[in-house]
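Show me any protein, keeping tokens residue-aligned.
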Amino acid sequence: MTYSPCEIIGESRKSRFLITCDHAANTVPPDLGGSLGLPVSDMARHIAYDVGAAGVARELGELLDAPVVLSNFSRLVIDPNRGEDDPTLLMKLYDGSVIPGNRHAGAEEKERRLAAYYRPYHDALARMAARHEDVAIVAIHSFTPQLHGRPPRPWHVGILHAAWDARLSDPLIDMLQAEPDLVVGRNEPYPGHLPGDALDRHALQDKRHNTLIEVRNDLIEEEVGQRHWAARLAPLLERALAAAAD
């Protein structure tokens, strides 16, 4: 089977929504030997991909009749949710783990990975985002309950957005915060915007509706949790988009 750096599901679906998953896979492409020298236990952690996020994205696409674009390479190969000049684009140390396959990766190897994996993913995202003038991009991510040496993270879900564009995020946060069983973070556990990140490139620069949803990964490790969260988010997203200011 021929390797592809991205997967598009439901390309002909008609919804305004476009679902993306930047860190969908822990795949190391065949031309890198299928490994970065890390043990299987590390490749199964959040350092390699967003655990459970792909399942939520796929199910959400089904429920919203929306296309889904998923990466097919580990964030440790090269991170598609960083700008090309971001110093964390190609990590050599992440949350206590040294990445052996990246130890000697210099400018030439970074450029090769940009051309082979990163740019094809973004080209697919750009093409899918351009299908509708009024597209609304929903990026699905997950976060670990606790980083090494850091305090536990209390949120079940975080909604991230740039400071100047919360049109879709504001009503979504309000609806989630109205649910008594959830601890909801605004721009938690991360800031809502990095220059050159995926939403900056494909939504903010073109003034498209957007939001980034971070679900705590212990809640979506299994398929049942992924289906639960997709079913919970889908109607809220539809209501939030209807309420969003143009």
Q: What stands out?
A: Residues 81 and 119 are 11 Å apart (CA to CA). The chain has a mean pLDDT of 95. Strands lie at 6-9, 17-21, 68-71, 93-94, 97-98, 136-143, 157-160, 184-186, 209-216.
